[in-house]
Amino acid sequence: MPLLCLASPKGGVGKTSLASGLAHALHRTGRPVFAIDCDPQNALRLHLGLPITDPEGYLARLHLRPDWRACLRRTPAGPDLLPYGETDMRGALATSGLIEREPELLAGPVRAMLADPSAIVVVDTPPGASAALQILAPQAALVLAVLLADAASTALLPEIETGRFLGRGTLGTLVGPKLRVVLNQVDRHSRLSVSAAEGVAAHLGARLAGAISREEAVAEALACQRPVGAHAPYSTAARDIEDLAATVLREMPVAAPAPVAPAVTSSLFPWSRP
Amino acid sequence: MDAQEPDISALASRLGMRGVRYRSFGNPPYRGERRPPPVQPNVVPPATMPAPAMVVPPAPPGMVAPPASPFMAPPPGPAPAWPAAAAPRPAAPAPWQPAPAPAPSFPLIAQALAAAATPQGQPFGGPAAEPAAPGTLPFLALRAAVGGAGG
Lengths: 274, 151
Description:
heterodimer; A: 274 residues; Rossmann fold; eight-stranded mixed sheet; 8 strands; B: 151 residues; mainly alpha; 3 helices; extended
């Protein structure tokens, strides 16, 4: 079940940048990659190259019960994307309530995407507690919690350790062993950043899946609507994300892509356009 | 372990974190032949840089002048006696040097600003119709510091 959920107890940690970078890096390994944007900010589409003027998406129109296959978009960066779609605060709250009442509206499309054993599904969830994370975390092979190497993020480690972030009881038992942490925007020239990173690394041990350098190339990549691996492939951040993708593949072994003819693939997975 | 010289590799090996690379914490390796030039120390001859003189105004009659605070910025020194040096002319690039990279363009910035300027109701007023009068702009100090023009 190669479902990868990106989550964070707090916002503004670069979760969507990392989701796009990981989706791009995993796609470059030759596997089919689907990205799902569950964040009402609807920003993953911009990272992957879809125009800002495109309002279409899946979750924003969930009350209309759209066919998710019709909402799937092939992005210039490579991965197929199910955008959230354009919405407002009221629409986002209504969508959250709807998938809480009918989780199959979100779990169903994810399950259908995962029917291809070589496919990887990368889900970008909203910051903090969310219905999307609660529904998808039990299905996930890995949940990557993104933190910054600073005091505010380090102060949230107890949220993760006590299960307040991902849930206690059965949910915590299900999700806990699959939780890994990624430190984003590590600045090796900052004493605070290095100190926080050292402390978090020492505390988490093998549960720290990777660390991404703070670099201007990451912000520039979004301004150019490309994942950083496509915008600045030789930047340290891009190579950090490649390392993280390799770690993810080691942690959740995925079947090699089947050498089938595209026509057969299309009939099995009609939403996977060549 | 020093915060300025972290030994993450040793830390990771002590913790048994094999397979996880902490490239972020180390100095990035330079690939190819493009190494940055060594940093030349910016040494100014001491004879051309006189120390600014702290001028303390005399206390009015009957008043006692407070002691000079170490946190108080010294007043600007007198104008230098020597003429200002002419701005250095940019040297022509050597023929073996690559042409400078063109200024990057960030399409999403322009697209987002264009989309924000498109009339769609705009409950928050939309873009400013005309520039505000000098002195009423927000972040005046920041603008002055950045642009020197105050707007």
